[in-house]
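Exercise 7. Predict the structure of pyridoxal kinase from Phenylobacterium kunshanense.
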Amino acid sequence: MPLALIMSSFVAASRIGGAAQQYVLAAHKIDPVLAPTAMFGRTPAKGARGEATSPDVFRRMLGDIEADAVFGLVDLILTGHFSSAEQVEIAAGVIGRVRNAGQDNALGPRPLVLVDPILGDAPRGLYVRPEVADAVARHLVPQADWITPNLWELGFLTGREIATAAEARDAARALGRPALITSVPAGEGEIALLYVDKARAVLLAHPRQPSAPNGTGDLVAASFGAGLVEGMDPLDAALRAAGAAAEAVDAATAWKATELPIVSLADRIVRPTAAIRTEPL
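Solution. The predicted structure, encoded as tokens:
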């Protein structure tokens, strides 16, 4: 049975962060283990006041997960929100320990590391502390097999102003990590993911809704990671992730839902039918 270790936030009533990713991974029959970096009742975007997991508690929690011999079962490590630079350093050490744990009982030969560098967005800019953003860039991005930044985060990581898909492609290749970039401009009335590896760059576009619940980036990262664990070609996994995000946003719009309906849409997230326009760059 495949297993994923998530190090990100837990938000009880909102379909964002690691808690939402648990549902996405479970729909793909991947067992999720969440070590929360922060805990909230609902999204902080609505003014919720939560609490960061102290580094001591975070370290002990991960130590207990390791003590149950879970590290040797991990097929996917998914990192997201961090509240402190010390948490990031702990997570970076855990990645190394998982990779050294031996994968005799895991589904794949080695754990895949997917880093979603949750740092900020336009126009607000950074919404984590600068030292957290610096720690993610220094300690996590270099260990990633894949990164899933939004357009603004990719610009932050590369020190570039990025306004177009072509500029995003060039920035990702300069960073030296395969990437699935969210919130990329496409054609009129569209929003896109941009898939970039050493050989390929493909825009995956779908119609933009006037508004969308928070959490689409979390959904994309988990869906893409699930596809990698399942052995899909990465571009096919990215195409499915784009379809899953479009499916969820379209349903939320039709149902006037304030949160992404991940649980009710589980089958459609695993097998999305939303139309995605592909454009090689």
